[in-house]
Amino acid sequence: MTGRLVVVGGGQAAFALVAKLRALKDARPITIVSAEATPPYQRPPLSKKYLLGEADLGRLHFRSESWYPEHEVELRLSTEVTSIDRAAKTVKLGDGSTLSYDVLALATGAAPRRLPAEIGGDLDGVYTVRDYLDADRLGTEMSEGRRALIVGGGYIGLEAAAVARGRGLEVTVIEMADRILQRVASPATATILKAIHIARGVDIREKTGLVRLIGEDGRVTGAELSDGFVLPADIVIVGIGVAPNDRLAREAGLEVANGIVVDEHARTSDPSIFAMGDCAVLPFEGNRVRLESVQNAVDQAEAAAAVIAGGTEPYAPRPWFWSDQYDVKLQIAGFCMGYDDTLVRPGQREGSVSVWYFRQGRFIAVDAVNDAKAYVVGKKLLEQGRTPERTALEDPATDLKTLTL
Ligand SMILES: Cc1cc2nc3c(=O)[nH]c(=O)nc-3n(C[C@H](O)[C@H](O)[C@H](O)COP(=O)(O)OP(=O)(O)OC[C@H]3O[C@@H](n4cnc5c(N)ncnc54)[C@H](O)[C@@H]3O)c2cc1C
């Protein structure tokens, strides 16, 4: 494919796409249009080290601002794309001007779901974490002795809980479902992480929904919970999932189904438009999924770059993910969707443990808690398409390394 590439969005996938094209010696004109005021940066630290105050924004940037002109990439910051004209092959920008493209890449990410204003979602002191400004604002509120309510026991909520405890706040997590991590992990993994948080003094309340936030003079002061309990709170952190930023694609008539539908080459229903990262829905093992992870944003974007540069190799996701909470590192290889069986294997060090997932007898994923060996071996087994013998996995004497080829 020849001609000018316009990339909408300036996050993980946008950077990976552009860096890969230049690494492939593709010299086409490229413009990145990003709504954010800073060059592309890593988001994971926003609910970890950055929020703890242990990393600054400079350390999060993939490259400094000078890298872009040096690589003949035009970086337009603080600029939003407001619409796509597919017939004219132009995008409209927030200032009313237009930009022509030959190839368009949508890397618009996702936006956190917010609590409705009717239940207090718009009160001051209520936060979601998606960009560095969110983390900056939240960080200034995290002072010792204050009370934080976390709504949602997913990874972001639990990471925020760990940071808040680390900064000396009193923390309650409420989770509407039967247990934390319901959507993304097994009961075994959830039980392990729950125990870790409880040991650090976090109050975790499962099967507990939010009825409404209570406020005074426009500022949150507490929350009414579904069990009738009224909890005081100085800040509220909402981690109830994200929605893909697919509006531009939908309005341009591209196929959209809770995300921009792409094929195994990251191509949308318009052959000159690609989509990648959190905004895209892609084929995976016979399903259409969105994979909200660094792994997917990078690998899918790099696969798209190769196609744009003339390649034909399809993208076959090899999911991996991680989450840091306190001194606990959770590493996940594979994607546990549809699992029907799990096996828990204690690791060799105190506090290390892994949870192995199976679907119809086939090994599909592993969650490794402070157990790098289990993660590395699990990842390798998945790459090799192998399912370890259950008896061998169950036997604590088995050296995991012997299970791979
Ligand atoms: C707090 C937090 C912690 C996370 N932790 C982990 C983790 O531990 N491990 C992991 O694997 N993943 C983690 N993730 C997920 C990971 O960061 C995302 O999957 C990844 O950033 C997706 O990359 P992306 O490029 O698709 O989207 P993003 O990185 O979100 O980038 C999208 C960009 O597009 C811009 N944009 C959107 N619409 C427009 C428009 N119309 N015009 C111009 N610009 C636009 C946005 O402003 C944004 O800059 C975390 C995410 C968050 C928020």
| Backbone shape | globular
Query: What is the average per-residue confidence, as pLDDT, rounded to a whole number?
Result: 97
What is the CATH topology classification name of the largest domain? FAD/NAD(P)-binding domain
How far do the termini sit from each other?
39 Å
Radius of gyration, in Å, reads: 22 Å
Total helical segments: 11
Q: What structural class should be given to the helix and strand makeup?
A: alpha/beta
Strand order of the largest sheet: 3-2-1-7-19
Bound molecules: flavin-adenine dinucleotide
- The percent range for helix content is 10-25%
Domain FAD/NAD(P)-binding: 4-301
Keywords: Dioxygenase, FAD, Flavoprotein, Oxidoreductase
Cofactor: FAD
Protein name: 3-phenylpropionate/trans-cinnamate dioxygenase ferredoxin reductase subunit
Give a structural overview:
It is a single chain. This protein has 405 residues and is α/β, with parallel strands linked by helices. The protein folds into three domains: 5-110 and 243-308, 3-Layer(bba) Sandwich (FAD/NAD(P)-binding domain), CATH 3.50.50; 114-238, FAD/NAD(P)-binding domain, CATH 3.50.50; 327-404, Enolase-like, domain 1 (2-Layer Sandwich). It contains eleven helices and 26 strands. It has helices spanning 12-23, 49-52, 57-60, 67-70, 132-141, 155-166, 187-199, 247-251, 294-308, 372-384, 390-394, and strands at residues 5-8, 30-33, 73-76, 81-85, 90-93, 98-100, 103-106, 110-112, 126-127, 147-151, 170-175, 203-206, 210-216, 219-225, 230-232, 235-238, 242-244, 260-261, 273-275, 280-284, 287-289, 320-325, 328-334, 341-346, 353-359, 362-369. A hairpin with a 2-residue loop joins strand 22 (320-325) and strand 23 (328-334). The longest helix is centred in the C-terminal third of the chain and has 15 residues, at 294-308. The protein is globular, with a radius of gyration of 22 Å. The protein starts with a strand and ends in an 11-residue tail after the last helix. 43% of the residues are buried. Flavin-adenine dinucleotide (FAD) is lined by residues 8-14, 33-36, 43-44, 46-47, 80-81, 107-109, 129-130, 156, 245, 248, 277-279, 292-295, 297, 321-323.
